[in-house]
Amino acid sequence: MSDSHEVASKRGRTSPITFYRQAVAELRKVHWPTRPQVINYFFVVLVFVLIMMAIVAGLDFGLAKAMFWIFA
């Protein structure tokens, strides 16, 4: 067992208020993206998903046609 796990278990559970304060402190450290970055990332992800959908749909269609040709 690691030492950090033993130390954490000896201290016991943190109170909900302490947990909340620690979570808020960590969220303040986060580098949040700007609005233009979020919009840019959205379109990049959208294009990637559409390309992947087209690839999967094409493979599905092609393999279905192949199966019907083989087993028909």
Walk me through this protein's architecture:
- The chain has 72 residues and is mainly α.
- It has one domain.
- The protein has three helices and no strands.
- The termini are far apart.
- The model has no long low-confidence stretch (mean pLDDT 89).
As a whole number of angstroms, the C-alpha radius of gyration is 25 Å
Mean pLDDT: 89
In total, how many beta strands?
Answer: 0
The residue fraction in helices comes out at over 70%
Report how far apart the termini are.
60 Å
Shape: elongated
Structural class: mainly alpha
Protein traits:
mainly alpha; 72 residues; elongated
Task: Tell me the layout of helices and strands.
Elements (H helix, E strand, L loop, with lengths): L2 H9 L4 H14 L5 H37 L1
Overview in brief:
This protein has 72 residues and is mainly α. It has three helices and no strands.
